[in-house]
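hey can u check if this looks right to u? its 254 residues, i copy pasted from the old doc so theres a chance i mangled smth
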Amino acid sequence: MRTPARWARAEWGLLYVTVRETLLKRRLRAIPMTLAAVCLTALLQWVQNQEWGFQFVQNVGAVRAEDPLWLALLRTPLSLFVPALDLPVWGALAQILLVFGIAEICIGWWRTLTIAYVATLAGTLYARVGISLGGHAPFGLPWTDAQVVDTGPSAAVVGLAVYVAWRYGAYATAGAVTVAMVAEVLVKENLAGKEHLAALMAVGLLCLAVAVRHRFAHELRRRLRRAYARRMRRGPRRPGSRTGRGPGAPPIHP
């Protein structure tokens, strides 16, 4: 086998097999949440391009740093599916279909939504911190960004891509996505790029927490197996044998 093919199998083999077998067995029934997300995004795009619907979408799903925090948190779940007006909607739909679909198959729909929300919320909260720091600070933002609408589905897509790649051992892919987001900020420093980095940091901390939990769980299971093995080697306790500090029960003679 050629080296590129061997590398591709090592990098994406498990992920490919998982997605392929699930789709062959269940087809579109394997990704109901993803299909609903694609339809919702397309619907919101159509509504916000109507004269009567633009302000409605802004009121229910557009998050800005200048908004009160309680209002931003209330709008954040729906903001995942509000595409940017200055970008082609087919790009957002393709990203959601591909990344959300793979994530739903690999980690389940509720984990997919949770990680997508965490990534988006991290970007939303970072925008407030960055503006409070000011444009002169290394991680700050100019005050004009307070009126810019947050990233929409892109932060969730980036966070999910890194998390799923990490869970399935595609570490080079996770690293490539991270490097691409850093390069985006270096080439064009804007609110969206920095929010993507905030989303990556939040997902990275989540990956670390999951790894630590699995490590402790594995260590606990190993210790329990050792304790059980030692007990089995001792054999079953005989009736009438001594237990604790007190004397054993006297034998009963007929």
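The two ends are 78 Å apart (CA to CA).
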